[in-house]
Design a protein that fits this description.
With 397 residues, the protein is mostly beta strands. It contains 4 helices and 30 strands.
Length: 397
């Protein structure tokens, strides 16, 4: 009899325990056990010092999702990207050197309960800064509509030793995608060109997100820079020192044929260079002086010429030469320039964009890649040798 009572009491006790469990502090009014709070991990760790400016801030939620992430400082905040499932946030740019950042996060679990966390970190101090000294193309020197051969050329005011850090913060976007790469000519000059000429009528944007970017030991970028320009129609001029003719093709169709006279040779400096030149400037008037020869010496000259288009840094132009019209089309008599008639020179300067390719063949003297804008003289393989990050397709504009 006691055993029977014991069995019945056991069932009753179980019912009582079950009833008690639903009303205890570990359950809500519906009888559901509350979920644990969402937790958050943050990198860099709280109160970290001397954090590299390019270290990515990462916030991750466990047992829930991120409702908000703020990274703030007196120098400004850091923007970031939230993953599709809202469990991970990553900063999207570099921090400012010598700055303390506060990271404030709000995470929420499946029950909707929020939890806020706060942490700080301080970035490494800068001993000096670097800036962009010049960028080409630009509104004043080239105009913002340029030829299909136009490179992007950036000059810094300080030597850059951490080229990888700087280059990965340089981006090129275009309305028509191209394969391209940056190329370091030295520690202060980095240039971008496509593998092939730009497509005609392409919009281009260059972003140098350099504020806070490490350029070397204790050296950090001072500011960001953005540049927009447009590629015009495709115009390519070809000339031969043997055939003495310049042919201008626009969008694949011949629009002008001009008799020419090139460098007379004899001395090396009097040969016109062979290679892919680019139009570097358009000058209504240019005073030309004999290279390496002073006044009173044999061969000295100082000559005012009109309607000139510069094609190198070694004194080569396509220009008006009324004195050599009789030789144009049949012989080479210049000191290295490409001579054309006054009428053709006036047409050429009017119809040339800075960055238009001007290709000369037939001369034994080759255009050096560093002579003016001889960028296209290097093969793509040679160009990539001096790129820290190699080739990549431009971003969509």
């Amino acid at each position: 009899m006691g055993r029977v009572a014991c069995g019945s009491g056991g069932l009753l006790l179980l019912a009582l325990l079950t009833s008690c469990s639903t009303s205890s502090s570990s359950a809500n009014e519906t009888g559901k056990v509350p979920l644990a709070d969402a937790s958050v991990t943050v990198a860099p760790l709280d109160k970290s010092q001397n954090v590299p400016t390019d270290q990515t801030v990462v916030v991750a939620a466990q047992g829930g999702t991120l409702r908000s992430v703020r990274v703030e400082s007196k120098a400004g905040g850091l923007r970031g990207v939230l993953s599709a499932d809202r469990t991970r946030w990553r900063s999207s740019r570099t921090a400012t050197p010598g700055t303390t950042y506060t990271i404030t996060t709000v995470a929420v679990n499946a029950d909707g309960k929020q939890k806020e966390t706060t942490s700080t970190f301080t970035t490494v101090k800068a001993t000096k800064t670097f800036d962009v000294e010049s960028v080409t193309p630009n509104k004043d020197d080239t105009g913002l509509t340029v030829g299909v051969g136009m490179p992007v050329m950036i000059t810094f005011n300080q030597p850059i030793t951490d080229r990888v850090s700087v280059e990965r913060n340089l981006s090129v976007s275009s309305s028509k995608p191209v394969q391209g790469a940056w190329h370091w000519f030295d520690d202060r000059h980095v240039d971008f060109r496509p593998q092939q000429y730009w497509p005609a009528h392409t919009d281009v944007r260059v972003d140098a997100r350099l504020a806070g970017v490490r350029g070397g030991e204790g050296l950090y970028g001072k500011r960001d820079l953005a540049l927009k320009f447009k590629i015009g129609r495709s115009q390519i001029t070809r000339g031969s020192t043997n055939e003495h003719v310049l042919t201008v093709k626009r969008d694949g169709k011949t629009v002008r044929t001009m008799p020419m006279s090139a460098g007379q040779g004899g001395e090396w400096k009097y040969y016109t260079t062979s290679g892919i030149h680019l139009a570097m400037s358009r000058e209504p008037v240019t005073v030309m002086v004999s290279p390496g020869i002073g006044p009173g010496s044999p061969g000295y000259y100082q000559l005012t010429v009109y309607n000139t288009v510069r094609i190198s840094n070694s004194g080569e132009y396509v220009h008006s030469a009324p004195w050599s019209v009789g030789s144009q089309g049949n012989s080479n008599v210049s000191h290295g320039c490409v001579n054309v008639s006054p009428e053709n020179a006036a047409w050429f300067i009017e119809n040339t964009l800075i960055g238009d390719p001007i290709i000369i063949t037939g001369s034994p003297r080759k255009l050096e890649p560093t002579n003016g804008w001889g960028h296209w003289q290097e093969s793509w393989k040679e160009w990539l040798k001096w790129s820290s990050l190699k080739a990549a397709s431009t971003d969509d504009l």
